[in-house]
């Protein structure tokens, strides 16, 4: 190789590395925004419900965001596959900003919940598209360390959210939990506009939008979450409205499956479920969503009401979880990129989470704070070992043309788990709390304590010792048993993951005419007899290109012009 050619190659590699890092920085920012808003209200909620007098609607501030983002996940994933991801990504950021403005000026709980819902409609796109875009520019073998950093960002938000929420509530106003998204969202929008360069789909490659599938998915998801949210609290489980919602969930879900199996361009192809690894990672993702978000949503409330921590201190007490998640997420991602081995990370991680939940169920008002922090650190270690690796496994299972749909489907079920977990834990907590307060609080104590709907940490701390001890005991005994209920569920998910099949990770991305393609099996640094994509190879539904067709078109491209490997420089 001559000196000018070598210099040109080095320059191209440096430019490619710079572009990837700029894109990745923008993706990290948007992931931070979306994940931050899933937890930032956890420490602010006690003050918000006291100020807006809405403890009965407390869980909706968190649940509506998760529900809205969940419904839109498959839509964003499929639309990105159909028309390209950049424009849709920017639209999602814009929706997120609008929701922050609406919620930031809320004067009652209904107004606040509406703003959070709009935020969620944008947040779903931020979460799934940031992961899918990584698959557009980084091969699977190198993707582990990038995904590990994304997991680290999620870890940061899991603690920074409650901490920022607490600080804003104590020092300024809880409304800054929403207002802070406006400048950050604008910065992310600008970064996407100037630095994110992705190939747009040609009109001939675009399939028909699956409107029926979108509507049925929205109906089924909403009915399911309303069932878990209202059941046992607002309405009895045997009431007509709950029975109607259950029937609506089942009917809409069945119709969704029927429509998707016949759609030209389904938002969630039923052929995804022919791949065993997808089924196993999806089950695990759903269970992790239940456990993680059910815990994160209400643990800060426990810390404030039971240990006497203020909102800021409750956020700080979550740092051990962040540290554990950050360490294992980045470490496991780097190890996977170096060795290509990944199967046992989610297995061990899920087992650790089940143990941490068992320990959290033993908490009480007398337990020392450092012991609680050690339990949280263990929870973070387990979550960091598995979460992003599960996404990587899904992306490595399917061709690039279906990565958006597959990633979105996996995220969808994790978010369904999050929505169910938040709603069920909240419902059980509120029901248990109401029953315990009714049983334990005397008429004199209730008069002194005020309306239970308006309890705030400051109000509880100001109560006489005998009344305060009743309330603190009720909060503790209402929440901690719920953690124990989740232990066998998470343990079962770990058993399912034992049966994962470890497929080789692709080491290159091939570009053909500007489009990015996963390498065919012979391009992998593995046994040529081992396929990169197994099972049915997920040929698309009607109108979608199969793997065989992709290989055929690739052969034609080779005969007609050069194909370039996108070997990336190290991160």
UniProtKB/TrEMBL annotation:
Residues annotated as domain Major facilitator superfamily (MFS) profile: 23-505
InterPro entries: EmrB-like (IPR004638), MFS (IPR011701), MFS_dom (IPR020846), MFS_trans_sf (IPR036259)
Protein's recorded name: Drug resistance MFS transporter
PROSITE patterns recorded: MFS
GO cellular component terms, A-Z: plasma membrane
UniProt key word Transport: yes
Biased composition (Polar residues): 547-561
Keyword line: Cell membrane, Membrane, Transmembrane, Transmembrane helix, Transport
